Amino acid sequence: MGKRLTQIATRTGDDGTTGLGDNTRVSKDSLRVHAMGDVDELNSHIGLLLCEQLPADVRELLVDVQHQLFNLGGELSIPGFELLKADAVLALDAALERYNAQLPRLQEFILPAGKRAAAQAHVCRTVARRAERAVVALGAAETLRETPRQYLNRLSDLLFVLARVLNRMDGGDDVYWKSERLARSAD
Q: Where are the annotated segments for Disordered (predicted)?
């Protein structure tokens, strides 16, 4: 195993910098640190989602996602290093296809609501989108592989689909947006 943290409060960040995995120090407001933080927050929200009642296959998928997000965070913390593999994106594609095939086509926009697990999946989706934007911003400023961006993009899509799946547990459904414009056109 690699280096273990033995001391948490090092006080080395008191000057507004943080250490990366390659031992360089950067400002805590750097694009890289923002991306790392958003990925970490996403992983924490998925951990919260895992506290809910979930089908075993969804739980297993989300645990794997947490490990992949840890790989992604590690990759972001070491410029030029590769930890997140392209097959992680392919695994999300397969899960997306599998779970989406069970769902009826959307006829209307849905609200991020319903069962608590589904609502938490929507929170995860929005944090994944923010993490994706942070990775895109980092990639515009520094050389970055495309896999991290692709993974977050696909993960946010999957979380949307999983929210719909979770809302259907025990006979539930999506919570549909009541568009005034659409209601007027239907009259």
A: 1-23
CA angle 61-85-40, nearest 5°? 60
Long-range contacts of 175-180 (CB under 8 A, 24+ apart): 175/110, 175/111, 175/113, 175/114, 176/108, 176/109, 176/110, 176/111, 177/108, 177/109, 177/110, 177/111, 179/108, 179/109
Which regions in the chain score pLDDT beneath 70?
1-15, 180-187
The total domain count for the chain is 1
Kindly list the distances between the CA atom of residue 174 and the CA atoms of 14, 24, 151, 157, 169, in Å, as whole numbers in the listed order: 46, 47, 25, 16, 11
pTM for the full predicted model: 0.88
- 172 to 18, 114, 152: CA distances (angstroms): 46, 8, 28
CATH number reported for the structural domain that contains residue 46 in this entry:
1.20.1200.10
Decide if 11 is inside a domain. no
